[in-house]
Amino acid sequence: xxxxxxxxxxxxxxxxxxxxxKNTLVSDVDVQNQIASQLANYPQEKLHLHVDRNHYVPGExxxxxxxxxxxxxxxxxxKSRYVYVELISPADTLISRVKIxxxxxxxxxxxxxxxxxxxxxxxxxAYTRYMENLGxxxxxxxxxxxxxxxxxxxxxxxxxxxxxxxxxxxxDVSFFPEGGNLLAGTLCKVAFKAMNRNGYSExxxxxxxxxxxxxxxxxxxxxxxxxxxxxxPASGGKYYLNCVNDKGLSKRIELPEAKSGAxxxxxxxxxxxxxxxxxxxxxxxxxLPTYLLVQSRGVVLYFGAWDKHxxxxxxxxxxxxxGVIQAILFDDQMNPLSERLVFSKNVQMETxxxxxxxxxxxxQTREQITSTIRVSDQDDLSLLGNISVSVTDDKDITIDxxxxxxxxxxxxxxxxxYIESPGYYFEEDTDKRNLELDYLMMVHGWKRYNIPEVLKxxxxxxxxxxEEGDILSGSVKSLFRAKPVPNSEVSxxxxxxxxxxxxxxxxxxxxxxxxxxxxxxxxxxxSLGKKGxxxxxxxxxxxxxPALSNLLVKPLPVLTEQLKADSTSxxxxxxxxxxxxxxxDMRVVHLANVEVVARKIEKQxxxxxxxxxxxxxxxxxxxxxxxxxSLVMHLVQNIPGVRVSGNGYIHxxxxxxxPLVLIxxxxxxxxxxxxxxxxxxxxxxxxxxxxxxxxxxxPSASIFGVRGAHGAIAITTRRGGSGILDSQELNKLVLSxxxxxxxxxxxxxxxxxxxxxxxxxxxxxxxxxxKPDIVTDEDGKASFDxxxxxxxxxxxxxxxxxxxxxxxxxxxKKIQVE
Length: 818
Hints:
- The chain is mostly beta strands.
- It contains 12 helices and 44 strands.
- Among the domains are: 1-41 and 170-344 and 421-449, Immunoglobulins (Immunoglobulin-like, Sandwich), CATH 2.60.40; 351-396 and 766-818, Immunoglobulin-like (Sandwich); 471-540; 610-724, Ferric Hydroxamate Uptake Protein, Chain A, domain 1.
- The longest helix is centred in the N-terminal third of the chain and has 16 residues, at 3-18.
- The strands form 12 sheets. It has a 5-stranded mixed beta sheet, with helices on one face. The chain has a 5-stranded mixed beta sheet with strand order 24-44-43-26-41.
C-alpha cells in the first residue's frame, strides 16, 4: 500500500477517534488540505540500522541491516533504491563507505575493518540520497568502539585517563522555558540540560537567584542531565543559576530574559489524559483570538479556535498515536506563538508482538540451538514481516539496552539533536520515567516539517529525487568557448562488460540509466562530436557525498567505560587477541618505519587501453607466441568472423567495409594506405611487437562512434600507447564510481559430526550468529538455527524488524550455555 494512502487512512482513523470528544474536529479545511498537500509533495524517510554489536577489533566485519521506512507510515521499503552506510573516524574522516541495494526487498551488508584501523570511538552513519534534502541531521547515526589488540603501556593509560578527565571537568547548561517563552510576571516552568565537553550528560545541583542573590528555585538534574524548575520572573529582571557538578566545579550561568507580550502552551498528563492549556505574560489581554493545532508526523489530529471560556483542551491517550506529538498555538494571522512537544507512550498501537521459543532451556558448548519465532499484532493475528537477528556472547560485550528500532523510529528520528540513552524512557513504565520523558520533550524540537510555513501556503519541494536506480550523466562541450554539443554520441563500457550508448540533447546533456554495477567496477566513457570528431570535452556529473564534519554524535557511556581498558582486563579484547594468535600463529609486532632500498629486475607490464574490456574476441600474448605467425595479417585472418582479402582489405562478418584499426589507441585511417607502401594499416606492425589483439563486432564497436560502424580491430604493442587515456584526450574518461556492495554471508560454523565437535580448532566467536534476512510466513512464523561456541556463558539474542503493515518488531532473549 502506498505511503500516501496510509497517511490518509491514519488521518481518518485518528480524527474519527478525536471526533468522539466534545472538541471540534479539524474544522478548517484549508489547514487540513495544506498539510495533506505538503505530505503528498514531500514524503519523508526514516532509517534505522541494526548492527550485530557495538564494538570490534581490526580484521573483523561490522554486520548490519538497514531499515529505510516512510516517515509517516513506517512502511518499508521506500522508493529509494540504495542505502549508504559509512564508517567515520573520531577525527571526522571517512574510513569506509558502502552502497547497499535490496536483496529480496531487504537491505543488509557489512563493513570490513582493516588491520590498520586505530583504536577509538567511530560513527556509523546511514542515509539515502533522498534524505539529503533535509540535511545530515536527519541521518541515522550510531557510535561503535574499535579496540586495539596491542596493550597500552602504563604511561599511555595514564595519558588517556588524564585527557578524558580534563575533558569531562568542564560543562555547560542550556535553558528551555515551557512553550518556548519565559513569560514576565507569570509562574513559568523551565527545563534545563547540563552537558560536559566530552558529550556526556552532567549531574548538577544548585539554585536560581536574582540580581540581589535571593533564591528563586532549587535545581537538580535527572537522567541525561535534564531537570526542571519553576519561578516567577519579573519584567527586566536578571536571573542566574549557581550550580556545581559532582566533581566540585562551580559555575554561574545567566538565564534568558523574561518576555512581555508573549504567550506559551502548557501541557501535563493526568490519569492517561493529555491536558493542554495556555498562559500569557502579565501585560497580555486574555481575550485575543488564538488557534491550536495538534499534529503527529504531519497528520493533523486537531485544529480549531481556542474557546476563551475554556481553560484547557484534553485528549485521552488512546486518541493519540504513539510517538512525538506537536502542539502549536497560533494567532489569527497563523503566526506561531508557542510550541510544546509531548510523547504519547501507547507504543503497543504501532508495535508487533514477538514470541521466541528455543528447543531447549540450556545448551552445551558446540550444540545446535534451534529457535522459532512468531510475529503477531496485539490481537494475536499473524503478521508478515522481515526481521534481523544478532546473537552475541555476554561475557565479551554488554548489549546497549537503550537503543533499538523502537526508540529510533518513534523518538530519536523525530527530534532535533542527540538523544542520550533513548531506551531508558521505555525500560520501565513508572511515573518517574514518564516525567523524565516529558522533560526530554521540553529540551528538543520537532524536526520534520515547518508547519507554520505550510499553513501560510509555503509547500516545500524536495530538490533531490528518490534514487530509484544508478544514473551516469554529464555533458559534452566544444573545445572552443565550451558550448554545448547537441547530438553528440556518448558511449560507456564497463570492466564487467556492460555497454551503453546515448546521444546528447539540445543542451549537450546525456544520461545512462539502469546501469546497476557492483563496486570496484571501472567505467570507460567516450564522447564524439560531429562526424565522429574527438575534438570535444566530456564532463561527468560527480556524486557529491554529504560532509563528514560536525557530526555531533555523543559517545555511549556503557560502551566507552567497558572498552577503554587494556586487554588484560577486558574479556572481549582477551578473546580477540587469542583468536588473532591462533589465526596467525604469531603476534603482529608493529615496527618503526624504515626505508629499504633495493633493485629488482622485472618484466615491464603493458598497460592495456581503456576500451580493451569490451571486446568480443581477444588474443593475448601467449596465444600470439604459440601461433608463430610472421605477419600480422596471418594472425588476424585466423580470428573467427574476420576475413582478409588478397589485396589486404579486411572485413568483419556482417559488414561490407573495412573496420576501424587502432594501434596503441591511435586510429589508422584506411585512405592513408593509398599513400603508403602498405596495403593495410596492419602491415605497419611487426607481429613480434604485438602484446594483444582485440576485435569488436556489432554493438561493442559502437564505443568508437561512427568510426566503428563496420567493427574495429585494436592492436596493443608491447610498448603500449596513447590508448592508455592521455590526459589531453578530453573526450574520454575513466572512473570507478561507488557501486553496490556484493552480498556476503556471515560465517556460522556447523558442528554436526563428532569429528567437527571434538577435534576442530577453538571457537572464539563474539558474534555467535547473524542473520539479516528472516521472513515470516503466512502464520507469522520463521525458524533458524546455529551452534554455540566453546565457552560457558549466556547469549543475548536481539531481533528487530518491520511488518508488512509498518509495525515495529523488537525483542531480546537470553540463552544459557553450560
